[in-house]
Design a protein that fits this description.
It contains 3 helices and 2 strands; from the N terminus they run H-H-H-E-E. It has 95 residues and is mainly α.
């Protein structure tokens, strides 16, 4: 399928794109090549090929949900400038 200049102008208008006259020819060429590729892909015989939801349609290996770090909150709050009731206090930014 090939697009002519008028079709490209109409597409640009519908998409609310401003393209210059030299760009119209370039877009017509590029869009025509894209549509040609789509036609080639549609012509391929895919009978017997099962569709996949994703090319990497494989299950993920899951790891055990175990604690790998110890709780160090008290250690970090000792060196914090201001702490109250286990929470870090920060200066007020928004009035």
């Amino acid at each position: 399928m090939s697009l002519d200049r008028e079709q490209v102008r109409k597409i640009a208008h519908l998409a609310r794109l401003h393209i210059t006259e030299p760009e119209v020819a370039a877009y017509a060429e590029t869009l025509s090549r894209i549509l040609g590729l789509i036609e080639q892909m549609n012509a391929v015989d895919t009978t017997g090929v099962t569709p996949m939801a994703h090319p990497n349609d494989a299950g993920l290996r899951l790891r055990e949900d175990v604690v790998t770090e110890t709780d160090q909150r008290d250690k970090f709050q000792k060196i914090a400038p201001a702490v109250e009731a286990g929470l870090y206090l920060v200066p007020k930014v928004i009035e």
